[in-house]
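Weekend entry, working from home. Most of the wet-lab plans are on hold until the incubator is repaired, so I used the time to fold the two sequences that have been sitting in the queue since the last round of cloning. Logging both here for the record. First:
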Amino acid sequence: MKKQNIICYKKGLRHGIPIALGYLAVSFTLGIAAKNAGMTALQATATSLLVNASAGQYAGFTVIASQGSYLEMAVMIVVANARYLLMSCSLSQKLSSEFPFFHRFLIGFDVTDEIFGVSMAFPGKLNPFYTYGVITVAAPGWALGTCLGVLCGTVLPAMIVSALSVGLYGMFLAIIIPPARKSKIIAGLVVFSMFASFLFARIPIFHTLSSGVRIIILTVVISGVAAIVFPIPDNANS
């Protein structure tokens, strides 16, 4: 079992490299936001090491910049990061029962959109050491990008800083395209999810909600309907 854990960890390290590069670019703009909020490079870097959540950190820095209360901070962070609750629940079902319970807490510390995506794409039951490998490379990339954003973010032209965030969308495509090519059902759900997200951002009833809340609503509804209409046999993930 230990040998298998090492193999999975090394595999996670390799798969974490493109995520780290994407994080390095995207968190650069986060560092600029931290600097505008009056934070030092050390404070911003520590924040990214302890809270690896782009939307949540942006929301937190916004509250700090506006000198908001701790209550405002707590409510803002909960709303912005609520979707991670769904990701954690999904990952808990993916984890192999052979591993002790504390592995769920360790993985739960750094459940991000990208790490969740590659972990769910792991064939069969998830070996937590694979996710540890991804986190080992990805988390420092996020913190380093934040640090660089504070130190030299204002030096670069605004167009270059804006362009840095495009790389992360390419990484998302790399995560969803392989399973979509294998399954017409998944491909259809991906297209429908994108269309539904577009509509939700413009429908008067929903467009005032935060992006995190909209993601939760769409995830619960679409995944729930898909699970009922297109159930996966229990032996498919074994």
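Second, folded right after the first finished:
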Amino acid sequence: MKIGNIELGPRPVMLAPMEDVTDRSFRLLCKEQGADMVYTEFVSADALIRNIAATTRKLSIDDAERPTAIQIYGRDTESMVEAAKIVEAAHPDLLDINFGCPVKKVAGKGAGAGMLRDIPKMLEITRAVVRAVNIPVTVKTRLGWDCNSIIIPELAEQLQDCGIVALTVHGRTRSQMYTGSADWSVIARVKENPRLQIPVIGNGDITTPEQVREAFDRYGVDGVMVGRGSIGAPWIFRSLKAAAAGVESEEPTVAEKFQIIRRQIRESIDRIDEYRGILHIRRHLAASPLFKGIPHFRDTRIAMLRAESFDELDAILTKVETEILPALADNDN
């Protein structure tokens, strides 16, 4: 698959943009584990224009993680164009426009998925951003605002006409948020349109090798984007990428997974500071499959998510790795 001048090879598997998740360290980890392309956290156009430090930091890209996309969102054409030019100066491989974020603070103000209620404005912004920059521009959006307005099959053509070079479709409506199941049959309808010449990337509920194979073989997408399934588990890309290529992958050992988690913690601390770095990583710890299904784990889990220093957190992880999990394995045997 090719996006603009970026060659991603056949059946690419990508890391989705996620607020407070896809920082530079996490992107690099996912890249090392097999992700073909990674996306930054989404960036507010208004905050970027105002030069808010926390926002401008999101534009920092490590060459080792490339190809990397920076994603922006906003509701005003002029500010989106200005933000796009700022992003271009940061030298990402492509610029992605977020027309899919469903959260109230974004969509409720008319940005993100809120644009699904104002298609003329969405198209105006897309055309203006494409004209304003010299890097490839893509769009990520949803099926429609709600189940009564599944507009993506027609909208995809309109966005293509605006000049975008790829389209990512999350298989839910805005009203669904992240509930229910992603409807990949609608994504397939987008891909089946003979007038659509740009790559179609499917997104939604991809967590297993079987789902990756189905996305390509049954629904015919050009690429797959993985979001929440990677939180606390960047190693997921190893098996998903192997499945896309039709080969078997070797599951990382428990020790390797703990090594990755510890690296995330250290790099989060180095990037910010110890207290805030650990606060940032708690979302990954809470979601990590490393700790799923451990019986009588509640007190340890609470302690892990309340730890305020690396030493305190590392001691808990060491106990889980060297005492709790081996004891479970012995009981199973």
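Plan for Monday: verify the second prediction. The mean pLDDT is 95.
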